[in-house]
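Q: Could you fold this chain for me?
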Amino acid sequence: MSDPETPKTGSFRFVTRGRGRAMRINTAMRSPYGLQIVEDCVACPHKESRLFCNLPGAALQRLSEITSSATYPKGATLFVEGQAARGVFILCAGHVKLSTSSSDGRTLILRISEPGDLLGLPATISGRAYEVTAEVIEPSQANFISRTDFLNFLREHGEAALRVAQELSETYQSAFAEMRTIGLSHSAREKLARFVLDWSAQHAPENGAIKFNLTLTHEEIAQMIGASRETVTRLFADFKKKNLLQIKGSSVTIKDKLGIEQLLQQS
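A: Sure. Below is the predicted structure, expressed as structure tokens.
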């Protein structure tokens, strides 16, 4: 794993700006992994729709100055559980899974991070070790900010500090939702049904069906709901047999949402 504080230059070159700071300019015709790379937070087309990035101009300009952008392939690790917190990552594009492991090697995936999320935030604020492992599950871009720069940024910009408080609140609520799913569900069938419904929640139905992409493997889904891979495979086959959903590669179509919801009542 390369150090995010000293990213490889790759297709970028560095020039000096203001007080000796380095500014990276993309010199490549094509971006890595086909991603639309955002080099400048001020010019980011998504900033208004993302909680932390939707900041006043002065704060956004300062944020752009202290971030170091990098792209990561599938399988790359941003940080590891137990590692000393070096800073926070702003996920600009792609998805990252956050997981924790027990001493006997069992893994539980806590959640899948979306673009706009701040990764490593609790540890960076508290100064403690990262409490989870962050692994890239598809080609992604993440902007790194060192802990010192990030804390100074929050002291200087109260609006950014408020957004961080909101992010921590959402993380807290998400953790409780996961505890409900795993701890209060009576069966693996109910857990998987709830997982499918949660994953599809942001997608509107079309002609009575809900279609979405699910890039997680059966093993990763099992790690999210506290079941075995074999159980997840068997239950998906059962859902398809009952015509509740259809799966083609990473594409999932819920054909009978009411039928899946009834599985929650039967457990």
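A (continued): DSSP finds eight helices and 13 strands in the chain.
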